[in-house]
């Protein structure tokens, strides 16, 4: 397998597989908009910038909402919120998955049994219903949403990483390291983590994609933090005015398109990486 620790190898990986290249370009574009969006906003998204339901114009490229707030400013701020929550949940979720998988393998015995039974039980819980129940009774804050979504995103990744770690445990170099008295930290850092690196990336992409979709769904249902603009919140309000004419075109379609492009970009990156890591998938 190509050495992915080298930055040049990662760059060649992106260039070699068109799916990864297209997905990476789209994701980087959205991330840049999320990072510098507040400085690009022509108006404060919480302030009244014009007449209600103005059509797109030079002053308001996407028009205004029902209270006169600029929709382009809302979209740029919502990009930061939706992507920020998704990436935070993806990162925290994959860390929890990795800790559970390595703890199960390195400890073994009773620890392995307890952790895997916990994973099995966690996978049987319908995440959306329980997240709705928790968010309905907990103050809708961004950090609360990140923690709740992370708690329901780690189990599947833990099972996948553990399965790969079990195969690695049979390798001669791992058995030799164990026989020589290698500590769990040494085994994880020098042997398991490098071998699990491809799956860690894929788990991160999958969990980030699910988190962005889940956050948008909760915002669409009105269970997100009202102090932070998001794509789901814009879609929710935009759908209320679909019967009043073509206002929804510049209110609902831009956040829906941004959400769709984000999900597609993460999926394309994942497909490209799977083709690289698993040669039988190249066709």
TrEMBL record:
Domain ABC transmembrane type-1: 79-270
Keyword Ribonucleoprotein: no
Transmembrane segments: 21-40, 83-106, 118-137, 143-161, 248-273
GO biological process, one term: transmembrane transport
InterPro entries: BP-dependent_transpt_permease, MetI-like, MetI-like_sf
A Pfam family that the UniProt record links to this protein: BPD_transp_1
Keyword Transmembrane: yes
Domain of life: Bacteria
Localisation per UniProt entry: Cell membrane
Membrane topology note: Multi-pass membrane protein
Any one of the GO CC terms: plasma membrane
Keywords noted in UniProt: Cell membrane, Membrane, Transmembrane, Transmembrane helix, Transport
PROSITE patterns in UniProt: ABC_TM1
PANTHER family linked: D,D-DIPEPTIDE TRANSPORT SYSTEM PERMEASE PROTEIN DDPC-RELATED, OLIGOPEPTIDE TRANSPORT SYSTEM PERMEASE PROTEIN APPC
Family the entry assigns: Belongs to the binding-protein-dependent transport system permease family.
Protein name: ABC transporter permease
């Amino acid at each position: 397998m190509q050495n992915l620790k080298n930055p040049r190898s990662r760059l060649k990986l992106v260039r070699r597989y068109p799916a990864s290249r297209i997905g990476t370009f789209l994701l980087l574009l959205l991330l840049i908009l999320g990072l510098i969006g507040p400085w690009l906003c022509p108006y404060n998204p919480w302030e009244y910038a014009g007449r209600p339901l103005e059509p797109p114009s030079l002053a308001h490229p996407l028009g205004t909402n029902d209270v006169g707030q600029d929709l382009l400013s809302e979209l740029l701020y919502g990009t930061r919120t939706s992507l920020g929550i998704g990436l935070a949940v993806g990162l925290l979720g994959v860390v929890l998955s990795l800790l559970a998988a390595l703890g199960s393998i390195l400890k073994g015995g009773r620890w392995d049994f307890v952790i895997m039974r916990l994973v099995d039980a966690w996978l049987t819980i319908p995440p959306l219903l329980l997240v709705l129940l928790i968010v309905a009774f907990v103050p809708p804050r961004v950090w609360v949403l990140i923690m709740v979504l992370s708690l329901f995103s780690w189990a599947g990744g833990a099972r996948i990483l553990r399965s790969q770690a079990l195969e690695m445990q049979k390798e001669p170099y791992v058995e030799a390291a164990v026989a020589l008295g290698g500590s769990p930290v040494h085994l994880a850092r020098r042997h398991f983590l490098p071998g699990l690196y491809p799956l860690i990336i894929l788990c991160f992409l999958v969990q980030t994609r699910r988190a962005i979709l889940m956050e948008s769904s909760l915002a669409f249902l009105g269970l997100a933090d009202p102090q932070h603009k998001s794509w789901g919140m814009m879609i929710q309000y935009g759908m209320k005015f679909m019967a009043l004419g073509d206002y929804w075109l510049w209110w609902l379609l831009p956040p829906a398109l941004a959400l769709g492009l984000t999900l597609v970009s993460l999926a394309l990156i994942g497909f490209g990486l799977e083709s690289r890591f698993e040669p039988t998938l190249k066709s």
